[in-house]
Amino acid sequence: MGPRAGFVERIRQGGVALSPRLAAAFAEVPREVFVPDGFQRRDGTWAKPADPDFLDVVYSDDVLITKVDGRTPVSSSSQPSLMALMIETLDVHPGQTVLEIGAGTGYNAALLAGLGARVVSIDVQEDVVERARASLARAGVAGVRVEHADGYAGLPELAVDRVIVTVGVAGISPHWPAPIVAPVEHAGTHPVLAIAEDLTARVVTPAGFMTAAGPLTAAHPFPTPAPPGTIKGFIPYGESRWNPPLEPLAYRDLWYAAGVWNRRATHAAVPGHEQSCLVLLDEDRTGGAVILPDGQVLAGGGAADRYAADAHTILDRWLDLGRPPMGVWRIGLAAGGDPDAPILMPHTWEF
């Protein structure tokens, strides 16, 4: 049977209700063809096609990092369950034309083509474009065109029915026609938004993506995540609020609300915690307040008292509102970023 046999079920276990058409696309498109040069494992080593566990990892529900710049990942094949959720949200029908911003390995475009879409994928990295083209050709995928172009400008001459963005952006380009599915920066992460023609949006899922270049990240409304090792020496400001701690998705709900109410929200590595935690990062980027999954607040730095008070205000407000999940927010977009190349950014939130 091999590792490919259970791939669709592993994607479903990631929480996605796959349509029969998309399940068939995942079953038919060979993911290994799109990573011919291998990928970076989570432990930092490089997996190669000859390795005994290569296909096991390829057909896991995990991201495959295919290009790094120093230690920074710059291109990948996204986690399949996340890809599936974004594609299902896009609601693609046969014969429609989809503009994909960020070619990656070409695998996502191949899945879209498997749904009967005509796909034009653009990427600013020329080597990424060349590799995606070669992989699509090896896989025998028709109906996909990959272009070396600026994602912000899009392809003005192209009549597009849908846009999907596979890199993290601070806002969407006014050159893209809606509907759009895109990971848009919020509190140091990139939750995926479904953006309608009236420029209102809703959150589809929490996520983290590699960051785009150029005007699409011209404005960072939140501080970049705290560098590893900077959050240390923080002390408790109050007791835990939940036992057991919030489940990961509920913690992300709190995190999203924190980003709505406080522009210093981002994430940081905290000693004793495997996953990054929500932090209100001070201007020096060495202090502020951390909100842990159990609701305890830690704080440090010259303005620790103020940041701890802000963190408790966020917790109280979230609880008073009934712990709203991120999916209830309705988001309005407005122009921001570089005035010479504006982007449409989240501007208002209500539910």
Give a quick set of tags describing it.
single chain, 351 residues, alpha+beta, Rossmann fold, TATA-Binding Protein, nine-stranded mixed β-sheet, five-stranded antiparallel β-sheet, 18 strands, EC 2.1.1.77, methyltransferase activity, SAM-dependent_MTases_sf, S-adenosyl-L-methionine, transferase
What this model shows, in words?
By secondary structure, the chain is α+β, with helices and mostly antiparallel strands. The protein folds into two domains: 3-166, Rossmann fold; 235-320, TATA-Binding Protein, CATH 3.30.310. Helix content is 24%, strand content 25%. It has helices spanning 7-13, 20-28, 54-58, 80-90, 107-114, 126-139, 248-261, 304-320, and strands at residues 39-40, 46-47, 64-69, 72-77, 97-101, 118-123, 144-148, 162-165, 180-183, 192-195, 200-205, 235-236, 265-268, 277-281, 288-291, 297-300, 330-338, 341-350. A hairpin with an 8-residue loop joins β9 (180-183) and β10 (192-195). α2 (20-28) packs across α5 and α7 packs across α8. The longest helix has 17 residues, at 304-320.
Coarse morphology? globular
Q: Percentage of helical residues?
A: 10-25%
Quaternary state, please? single chain
**Gap from first CA to last CA:** 48 Å
Question: CATH superfamily of the largest domain, please?
Answer: Vaccinia Virus protein VP39
The chain-level structural class is alpha+beta
CATH topology-level fold name of the largest domain:
Rossmann fold
Kindly report the spatial arrangement of strands forming the biggest sheet.
7-6-5-8-9-10-11-17-18
Number of domains: 2
Helix-strand pattern, N to C?
A: HHEEHEEHEHEHEEEEEEHEEEEHEE
User: Any guess at the CATH architecture of the largest domain?
Assistant: 3-Layer(aba) Sandwich
Question: How much beta, percentage-wise?
Answer: 25-35%
What do the pLDDT scores average to? 94
